[in-house]
Structure formats: C-alpha cells, structure tokens
Design goal:
Elements (H helix, E strand, L loop, with lengths): L6 H22 L3 H24 L5 H6 L1 H17 L3 H11 L2 H15 L3 H27 L10 H16 L1 H9 L6
Helix pairs in contact: 1-2, 1-4, 2-4, 2-7, 4-7, 6-7
C-alpha cells in the first residue's frame, strides 16, 4: 500500500530506458516520421490489448491499470505527439484544431465523460482516450499561453506547484497512512 503508487515511476523508468535510444537511432537515420507512425500503431495495439484483457479475458481492472504493457501508451502518446509536431503540416493542422474554443470544450467534455465512465470502458480504451485528450489539451494550453489572457500559466505559484508536484506525488501516501493509524484524525 505504501509504495504501490510507485508503479508509475517504474513504468516511466522502463520507458525512458528504451525510448531515447529508439529516438536517437531513428533521428540518426532520418526515420523520426517512421518512429512516430510506428508509435501510433503501438498505441492502438496497446489500447486493443487492454480492451481485450478487460472485455474478453476478464482480467481485473487493477492489472490493466498497473501493468506496464497496458499503460505505456500514455507515455508513448506524448512522445509520438512531439514527433508529429516536428512535421510542419501536422503541426499546423493540430494548431488549427486546438486553437478553436469549441474543440477545447469538446476535449474537456470528452475527458470528463471518460473519467466518469464505468470501469469496463476506462480499463479498456478509456485510459488511451484520456491520455490523447490530455495531450491535446496540453498543446492547446501551450498555444493559448502565448495569448495575453493565459500568461498566468507561467505564474510563480504555478511554477512552484509544478516543481513540487512530483515530490508531492511520491510522498502523499505516507501522511495518509500515518493518518489511518491514528483513528482520531479524519482522512
């Protein structure tokens, strides 16, 4: 329980042990676009695998939530998106999509619907859909940040929260566990 949340750090470490080498090799041989397309295929395959495990193999959701092979797509989505953004045509198309307010509201609405969905959906394609929507919202926020009304994204309080967020994630269960040992303190 106290270190269970560190699985995500392990997944990230495994990803970072492999991805940079693939990226360097692809860039060295002029295959970055190929790597992006291959990554997109892997993302779809992982989403299909996770959906199969949840829907047909009756694997518990806790497995599809924690297993490296069924969650690596979230990291890969950000990496593939970054590679696609290197291609001018793809970058301009995506910029047109995420700069439209109705598209941002649609992405936010889709994310909220997905987060509120039943476990059969979330444990299947839902995690991938959520990662794609979050990646697109990050691109929209980065584009909007350049506009006047969004400069608060670079404010000192948000920068401080960003700097602390990983540490807070790593340590958040320890006070909660201590709290559960002391019955007089509400969680």
């Amino acid at each position: 329980h106290i270190v269970g949340h560190l699985w995500s750090v392990a997944v990230g470490a495994q990803f970072l042990a492999v991805w940079p080498w693939l990226l360097l090799g692809a860039m060295k041989h002029g295959r970055a676009a190929w790597l992006a397309r291959g990554g997109a295929v892997v993302i779809i395959a992982i989403m299909a695998l996770r959906s199969h495990l949840r829907w047909f193999a009756d694997v518990p959701e806790i497995y599809t939530y924690n297993a490296t092979e069924s969650r690596i797509d979230a990291l890969l989505i950000g990496s593939v998106l970054a590679l696609f953004l290197r291609e001018p045509r793809a970058a301009s198309t995506l910029a047109r999509i995420v700069s439209r307010p109705e598209a941002v509201w649609l992405m936010l609405g889709g994310l909220l619907v997905s987060l509120a969905s039943e476990s059969w959906y979330r444990g299947g394609p839902g995690y991938s859909v959520e990662a794609v929507l979050i990646a697109l919202l990050v691109v929209a926020a980065l584009r909007a940040e350049r506009a006047g009304g969004w400069r608060w994204l670079r404010s000192k309080p948000l920068a401080a929260l960003s700097a602390m967020s990983f540490s807070l994630f790593l340590w958040h269960l320890y006070p909660l566990t201590l709290d559960s040992m002391v019955s007089s303190v509400p969680t």
